[in-house]
Specification:
The protein has 3 helices and 7 strands, in the order αααβββββββ. It is of the alpha+beta class. It has 2 domains: 67 residues, no CATH class; 83 residues, Immunoglobulin-like (Sandwich). The strands form 2 sheets. The chain has a 4-stranded antiparallel beta sheet with strand order 1-2-7-6, with no helix packed on it. It has a 3-stranded antiparallel beta sheet with strand order 3-4-5, with no helix packed on it. 7% of the residues are buried. The mean pLDDT is 85.
């Protein structure tokens, strides 16, 4: 075997590749361990990590306290959907349409003597399943009014029902 054949023998190539792979793996492992060790012994890193853990625990405690402070026998207060405003010569009933898909067709207005009843229903299908919302609110008005004079109009996300009363 000549000198040239010995230098290009496959075993030398294999050993060179194995040695290069071993050295590369050793250097990568050393770099990762050294970086991790330096980070773990760095007081600034430890303080940031501790602050993050404390904020997380604080949020969990706040949620727990909020839940414990609720009275399970007291119904949760829903946001006001219907507001009644009395003006000089009319009543205005303002209905928030945001929870009702901004659709005034989801609102019903009924009158009986001096009572006005506003009701509605909306069904939503979402990721959490089907959600159904019903509401009904009645107002007993002091003044007499004519049900034929009631006007209804949508302005943005508000549904305004105007009820002029008779003197």
């Amino acid at each position: 075997m000549s000198e040239e054949e010995r230098n290009h023998h496959p075993i030398w190539k294999f050993l060179g590749i194995v040695l290069a792979t071993f050295i590369g793996a050793y250097l990568a492992f050393y770099f990762v361990v050294d970086t991790t060790f330096n980070r773990m012994t760095n007081p600034e890193y430890q303080m940031r990590k501790m602050e993050k853990i404390m904020k997380h625990q604080e949020r969990r405690m706040q949620k727990f306290e909020d839940k414990m402070m609720q009275n399970p026998f007291e119904p949760a207060v829903a946001p006001t959907l219907v507001n009644l405003i009395k003006e000089a010569d009319e009543y205005k009933i303002i209905v928030d349409l945001k929870p009702l898909d901004n659709n005034e067709n989801n609102v019903n207005v009924k009158t009986d003597n001096n009572t006005v009843t506003i009701s509605g229903r909306v069904e939503k299908n979402g990721r959490r399943g089907e959600q159904i919302m019903n509401f009904s609110q009645s107002f007993l008005l002091d003044e007499k009014f004519n049900p034929d004079n009631i006007t209804k109009e949508k302005k943005g996300s508000k549904y305004i029902i105007t009820i002029p009363f008779e003197e």
